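Morning F.,

Quick status update on the modeling queue. The single chain you submitted on Monday has been processed. Sequence for confirmation:
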Amino acid sequence: MVVRIGPYIKKMKQITLGHIYLYEHVCFRFSGLQGYEDDLVRRRDVFGSNVIPPKPPKSFLELVWEALQDVTLIILELAAVISLVLSFYKPPAEEGHGKAP
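Structure tokens below.
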């Protein structure tokens, strides 16, 4: 059995060169607006600048509020409040315990 690779390699080179030609042709055709400066200025005046405005940054209090909405942090806050309340609680002294007669 004889394997003839030559025709396949030739065909692959043709396909590859075709893709390169197509890529160069498309990139050359669609490289942006081609025009005069006054035409570009008129387009910018009519349609506006092609820029996305940046979002305003969040304030520190907004960031803290978002952080406080986390479930884990809510559980920790609840545990801290319970611990604080229990730290002020003093059980009543029972008779006969702790005082000498």
